[in-house]
Amino acid sequence: MSSRPARLTAMGKLSGITVVDLTQFLPGPMMTVMMADQGARVIKVEPKGGDPARAMEPSEAGHSVWFANLNRGKHSVVLDLKSEGGKAQLADLCRQADVFVEGFRPGVMRRLGFDYETVKALKPDIVYCSISAFGQEGALAHHPAHDMAVQALAGFLSVNDGADGMPVVPGTASADMAAGLTALAAVLMALIGRDRMGGGAYIDTAMFDSLLPWCVHTAGTAIAGGESPRSANQRSLGGAGFYQVYRTKDGRHVALGGREIKFARNLLSALGREDLVAHAEREAGEQGELIAFLRETFATKTRDEWVAWFADKDVAFAPVLDFREALEQPHVAERGLLMESAQGAHHIAPPIRFAGEDWTPAPAPGLEP
Q1: DSSP 3-state of 348
Q2: For the segment 13-28, what is each residue's pLDDT rounded down to a tens digit?
Q3: Catalytic residue among 37, 115, 147, 176
Q4: Residue 31 and residue 156 in one domain
Q5: Does residue 109 sit in the same domain as residue 145?
């Protein structure tokens, strides 16, 4: 075990729950750090070289920023799961666990001797969660994939396109994050069910399955058996003037992020173009004249000049900030969303925090040889 145990904070809703975590990179660690943040005892089982995220730059206070933010508060134990000694140690951990999480490709845990049935024999009420790209069964089950490939196969990349229609690399690992959140919800449901009715559960979480419901507000025609949506004629994907990104005089950008007609009326009246309000009520894809006007207009001032101009306007407007600018906003400080640990490492605070309870970043676990 690491010589630096997880620090339990006042946020202890999951205190007393033990999680054995065999996941790496993003979906699984994101799920289990949310449990650790709430007081669960998370035992991170790592190979000799450790979770590859440990080596991902940049680093701060002796740890990768990525690794520290997704693994704070966990214990770490290095096990060789191909050795008898390592397997015996993992079996001992399973006997004391409430939750077992693994993120290997289908079939790996069975080959290692720690599939659900085997772990269930060690701990009959275990909640066992597998996280993979496409699930444990199905035509794609064994297809290798990280986030972008899943987004591509789920249809999301087709509408993550530029003005020329070319899909671009997404800025958010949505499939990874969707899987982590889905797995967390499923595990918590299973724990509630165990307390009420007894018995454990097996959860097959797939990135593909987890992401797919996120398209219901844009892919309605395809869901109903019709044509696939295209960005240029979708309300939320670039076909509407008031849900759109515009370039400013200084080469930066601003965004209009609310299609309600009251916002269109407020802005267009302030710009002296009430005649275009009717254009904002047209179907997405039929607002070309409005979009052209707004493009010309926003190009006449710098981004910050527009921020000042919009200060007294009731319009869903926002400057497009980079991450440094976003993290330096007073709003982030006021809500305590970026915090520094006792070790001098910066952490994004957990989005789940309870009134009247404080939270302090726990240290990331060291990797013992």
Answers
A1: strand
A2: 999 999 999 999 999 9
A3: 176
A4: yes
A5: yes
